[in-house]
Amino acid sequence: MTEINGPRRCLRQFIDAQCFTRTVNVTKLEFIRMPPLHKWEITVSSGSYFPHLAQNFPGDDISLSDEDEEEQGIAFYAYSRHVDELDTPAGAAQRIYSLQLLLNGALRLEWEGVHTHSVRFNTFGRIGSGEINSVYARSIEENPFSESSVIDEGLGYCKNPKVKFSAHLLYLAKTDEDLRTLLFLVGLVSTESPIESILTWNTLYRIVDTVKNNAKYLNCSLEEFADKNKIKAFKAACNNMSIIGLNARHGAANNEPPPQVITDLDEAINLIIPMATKFCQFYVQARHP
User: Fold this and answer.
1) Same domain, 130 and 197
2) Which of 239, 226, 231, 237 lies closest to 263 in space, CA to CA?
3) 98 within some domain
4) Distances (CA, A) of 18 to 12, 155, 171
5) Same domain flag for 32 and 120
6) Alpha carbons 113 and 121: distance in angstroms, whole number
């Protein structure tokens, strides 16, 4: 068998894959040389919640891991079979970035808001090669999922994505384009940098449009998921450069400012993301009972 870097991480993947229900002697097993279960390993930066998330994120679309690397401290990693089928770093980088957006979108919908520290896929490399590549993409891969059915084979109870809302959304997004689009949009919402905050106003508006469009196919309306007057106040500000300046969707037009507007980005996020969550809960029950 081929020896690889990170035997402890390989062990974690092995244990997760087997879904052991009996006691495992980790001290002995971690030195067994096993072939890697994945081709690419992704380094992750995130908040203090990540170790808990890594232990409680079912499904086989994205596997998360936190490891104590002794001198370097706790390190976060991610793996995906959807990435493993790719051979070139350029193709893998685009897919990893796209999966990052979907993962964060699903998590934000579960949390009904934007976490202080999102899950960031930073670098990646082929396991055992020592190479390091940056996660970078000029465009989003709008369907970053493998067509192989092998990924979903043998999902036992402990890996059943239905037991966690975010994992279930990610699982359904593989075949549901409307849901996948909404996850992408919510995943783009961020306040971690000035440019992301500026662009988030436009993204929130697109989320409203997307929910409104999909709701009509379910014989319901946008107002069933959020306060009508608050949505109106958000849209009024978002459309008017004289109110939120360069954050607005449109350029200068000398529009008369409406009497009620939402100008605080956090307030806008706390309105739109919970609305999208309520819609997704309704949508999943209606389309994927």
Assistant:
1) no
2) 237
3) yes
4) 10, 10, 20
5) yes
6) 20
- What digits encode the pLDDT tens for the residues 154-194? 666 667 888 999 999 999 999 999 999 999 999 999 999 99
| Model pLDDT for residues 45-94, shown as the tens digit of each residue | 999 999 999 999 998 899 999 988 777 788 999 999 999 999 999 999 99
Q: Which domain holds residue 252?
A: 189-287
- Same structural domain, 193 and 149: no
31: which 2 tokens? 């030195």
Residues 73 and 106 in one domain: yes
Query: pTM of the entire structure?
Result: 0.86
Residue 181 neighbours by CB under 8 Å, 6+ apart: 210
Tally of domains in the chain: 2
Torsion of CA 280, 116, 51, 170, to 10 degrees: 20
Residue with tokens 């009497």: 259
